[in-house]
Design goal:
CATH class of the largest domain in chain A: Alpha Beta
Domain Semialdehyde dehydrogenase NAD-binding (chains A, B, C, D): 3-141
Distance between the termini of chain A: 34 Å
Largest interface: A-D, 47 and 47 residues
Largest sheet of chain A: 7 strands, mixed
Strand content of chain A: 15-25%
Order of helices and strands of chain A: EHEHEHEHHEHEHHEHEHEEHEEEH
CATH topology of the largest domain in chain A: Dihydrodipicolinate Reductase, domain 2
InterPro entries (chains A, B, C, D): AGPR, AGPR_AS, AGPR_dimerisation_dom, AGPR_type-1, NAD(P)-bd_dom_sf, Semialdehyde_DH_NAD-bd
Oligomer: homotetramer
Pathway (chains A, B, C, D): Amino-acid biosynthesis; L-arginine biosynthesis; N(2)-acetyl-L-ornithine from L-glutamate: step 3/4
CATH architecture of the largest domain in chain A: 2-Layer Sandwich
Organism (chains A, B, C, D): Polynucleobacter brandtiae
GO biological process, one term (chains A, B, C, D): L-arginine biosynthetic process
Amino acid sequence: MIKVGIVGGTGYTGVELLRLLAQHPEVQITAITSRTEAGLPVSDLFPSLRGRIDLKFSTPDDAKLTECDAVFFATPHGVAMAQAKELLAAGVKILDLAADFRLQDVKEFAQWYGLEHSCPEILAEAVYGLPEINREAIKKARVVGLAGCYPTSVQLGLAPLLSQKSTGGSQLIDGTHIISDSKSGTSGAGRKAEIGTLLSEASDNFKAYSVKGHRHLPEIVQGLKAIAGHDQIGLTFVPHLTPMVRGIHSTIYARLTEVGMSVDYQALYEHFYQDEPFVDVMPAGSHPETRSVRGSNGLRVAVHRPGNGDTLVILVVEDNLVKGASGQGVQCLNLMFGLPETTGLTQIAVSP
Amino acid sequence: MIKVGIVGGTGYTGVELLRLLAQHPEVQITAITSRTEAGLPVSDLFPSLRGRIDLKFSTPDDAKLTECDAVFFATPHGVAMAQAKELLAAGVKILDLAADFRLQDVKEFAQWYGLEHSCPEILAEAVYGLPEINREAIKKARVVGLAGCYPTSVQLGLAPLLSQKSTGGSQLIDGTHIISDSKSGTSGAGRKAEIGTLLSEASDNFKAYSVKGHRHLPEIVQGLKAIAGHDQIGLTFVPHLTPMVRGIHSTIYARLTEVGMSVDYQALYEHFYQDEPFVDVMPAGSHPETRSVRGSNGLRVAVHRPGNGDTLVILVVEDNLVKGASGQGVQCLNLMFGLPETTGLTQIAVSP
Amino acid sequence: MIKVGIVGGTGYTGVELLRLLAQHPEVQITAITSRTEAGLPVSDLFPSLRGRIDLKFSTPDDAKLTECDAVFFATPHGVAMAQAKELLAAGVKILDLAADFRLQDVKEFAQWYGLEHSCPEILAEAVYGLPEINREAIKKARVVGLAGCYPTSVQLGLAPLLSQKSTGGSQLIDGTHIISDSKSGTSGAGRKAEIGTLLSEASDNFKAYSVKGHRHLPEIVQGLKAIAGHDQIGLTFVPHLTPMVRGIHSTIYARLTEVGMSVDYQALYEHFYQDEPFVDVMPAGSHPETRSVRGSNGLRVAVHRPGNGDTLVILVVEDNLVKGASGQGVQCLNLMFGLPETTGLTQIAVSP
Amino acid sequence: MIKVGIVGGTGYTGVELLRLLAQHPEVQITAITSRTEAGLPVSDLFPSLRGRIDLKFSTPDDAKLTECDAVFFATPHGVAMAQAKELLAAGVKILDLAADFRLQDVKEFAQWYGLEHSCPEILAEAVYGLPEINREAIKKARVVGLAGCYPTSVQLGLAPLLSQKSTGGSQLIDGTHIISDSKSGTSGAGRKAEIGTLLSEASDNFKAYSVKGHRHLPEIVQGLKAIAGHDQIGLTFVPHLTPMVRGIHSTIYARLTEVGMSVDYQALYEHFYQDEPFVDVMPAGSHPETRSVRGSNGLRVAVHRPGNGDTLVILVVEDNLVKGASGQGVQCLNLMFGLPETTGLTQIAVSP
């Protein structure tokens, strides 16, 4: 059994990790920390876990995290990098659900997150946690910075178009003017007392936010450059808040190059993802729905070319708390410990 | 492996059965029928099942249901009773999610459901599918008429108060004037094209329905009489439609007798359900939420006595599609085939 | 034009007052205060009012409230009573949307609201703001303590059964064991940053709360006693949170006395409310929906007697922010200033 | 008083017309027709209108529509064109909420709507009902084909960028590759018994639809060409279904030309719409919300230029049933009958 600790388990990625890990056959949750809730049984805070998790929140000091095999950080950014060094020294593998180990450029990190990176040397060895792109590196990693929720959907939506693996170096699309119009449920905003995401405010309502620049923009661009193998990437990324709890739907627009005009994209996508257990290329003409993956680790993608013109429209859905966060975390954990990648991740979506 | 067939798998109880049975380690789904969708892959109708169920809908004639070990009816009432005789003759066990085998009184059945019962002799041997009350009978049953969604919540909410087992024959409450104010999500209305349950009609809205008499009323009363061991039962049952998908919340009001005034109800409920894997008596003062059991087979109950007066308030929550229908069906299936009762039913609620 | 000030206009009753008063032909809003938002244009906080309200929030000190003809308090309890004396001295009429002037018994106020009443002498002259019951007193009042949202629905639902006016002193129901199972949208919880009413928490969810005792209980009981003209009133009141924004639905259960068994309740209700502009007695057999009054000052009531038995079921719907709060406030304002009662309150419900 | 008839008043645009017209000081509704509901009081079908509309549905034959001054068609396409000739001959003005008089090209109409146009000569004189673009022509029109819901949002979002009036012939954007990613509430799908828009299906869910081509695409393109004064327009239009009742949010992406790089778009938009009563250009940096216009005839637009790059992002919100349909109809009616344009359209949005 892998002994797993969770730092900061009081948010939505925390409770989702608990749901998944409690059903994972090879994991034992040995510690879960929260400064604010120390002493409280986990199932008092999250009644959905009554009878399934028999643990109390402990303070970070009492948690004996160094005795774990792996520790998840389900915390705001800035926490994981403060504790990483000690954990690594104790031989503990780290999976960060926040942004501390996502952006390789410390200046960019400082610019978007408003604080200096405290362990650039660990950042240098950290692996970006997006298994469909980075599987082999994740297997060997000591530190994984898990891909963000929006970035997972946009990168996996575009990977077949940009990857050297599938395009053989041809530019199929104009990578400098990609658009991702992305929509998220409110759980993406976290379990925080805020007026803007009250049911009274956010239901029967729809709006964009952060149009001038969202923190996930540099992460996505970094990832697309890596996938493409070049730096000629430009992205307009507009996130929106949708009156639902779970789910991200990214609608991605890309303009074809002349070379790109003669490609069969349905075949390209199906081939690219043929061996992926969690990526499902939908039949031609499909419109995937977020609820079709609710509660599961699946991501679904459909590729359209309206009017056979020069604009591709790629539709991607995922559950932001599973494939966009905690499920992806478990997927990486499986890879890091040599388990079959789908272990503990076979939940079927709950629908309706 | 138990070979299971499903008749009429295009509704919400059907897709929920598929979700549960596809993850059940001892079941093989061998047939699923639908006249209207025959030939269609199940996962085309229910994209949440893509990659998990590799079956097509077949016509009832092609389905070879007589080769199954057990057949679920996830159909409107009237279908199961028409096919029961042939299936029983072939040695197939029957679990009906509709009402054909719930009401023992054929006159009452005719009155509430508007058609004559076509096989009273099979009805006579049918067992009411509510394991917490009827476990031993279910184990031996060939035909189980699964308890309805509302009836499950009301009967399990009241059983500790009425059962000879716990009350030793004392009347703790005035059983002649029980009130159940019950609220259901819209999935209880089924997957039917109707205006009243459109999102545009039912969201941001709340209403009662069928106040003059709902079909579940005679079923609940029959069940409460059986639990109580006497006929002095009167119930006012008012169902309401709530703008959510899954979940039933029954708020039950019962007036205490003089004997009943001195009982510790928290202890009574905890003791009554101490060995039940799916019934969770909440700590004193709790207000269980429907989402805490969403997607799981759990039912939660809390008992209150406001102002220490003579009125008990019992709060019960369940997922109407799981413990209120398909999950209860699997629970009964497990009992009928000698499996541990929780087999395939260990899903943790999806929350948020 | 009546010069109106609003103290504490940053909550939902505040913005709803603004919506109604901005369209009121006889009112000029001259001041709106908020300590936290002083200096901010009202339409920056509430974009729905852009172009319709050209006012900034001011501090209570700058607001010159004493120059108003009437002042609404859309504040937490405790604020109105602190400022009432000075306003009354300046000849300003007071309408309090909070609880400071609802409960006549200062001990009860202290017990339920946790603070001493600071001006019992003003409380003594305050009139309870429920026009259908108290119309004449409101016309002459200097201080009106507006009825709460739940209390409005329960009292108007029961008034025909309890009122001397309609019953002529007969007890039609057992007033000592009334049950009100009430459901509210989340706007009733106010515009407050709290986790429990986040969309991620409260949507697709249903729960009871405050079963052991809600602050509206003593208010309702006080009101029912006044309506009945005697003290033999007992109420079990269970509020529930429904995943919608606006609306209250109270389902009220009352047991008939022998005298009550022979009464035509449809006729009784229709007669009782025949002249009321905002109370609509629905046709026999109706199930009123909350959305049918959304955004309007209407309250709808239907009376049922299932199975012609001895239990009456009364269904009441209202918009908690309009008839349950700000609309009722405007209705009282009209009465206090000699205007037709419906002035500025003719909005038709928004549906769907 | 203008005598107004409504053909086909049983859908959402019908009930919304009734809500608006019942409060319109210069309109008398004299007839409302429905073949299926003939004889039924309007307020029985739409309880929100109880006490406000005292009319019954009549058959088209009994309705004496030729005695009206104006007739609205709130019907599926194909109905208005069948009755237009007779009504015009009787001197009745026609406002069609469906598509019969939107597309000037009868071939295009046949292609997208699947039927031949039956009165091309009337189509030739019909005016497109989008007052901000076509005000003078609407004033003189006998037949108005009201702009569709999505088309209103996209055209008004783009008009300042394309209009000769504001651009003086310069191409500020590449008009051949415009993208509109549009999101609608479910009321846009109409009051029809369908499975896809059940609350159980559409809530907590998000999906695109009709990516290969939606009927509003040719309408929008026709309109944009007219606004631009040239034919070099290409649009990728992707509509999405959002789990809410009312509201459209269009997120529009346009690439700037070199000339366009030096323009102040905030000023351009504010100037273009400075005299419009129903179009509100939001302050720079705003993210308008659909609920801020819910129930009102307002449309709000914000223009962004992320990173000061070459891609403009225009955000547009409207209530699809008001500015996107029935409110726009009333606005056109006012123009056609010489009334102030805002008559009967001063409702403030209902929020929360």
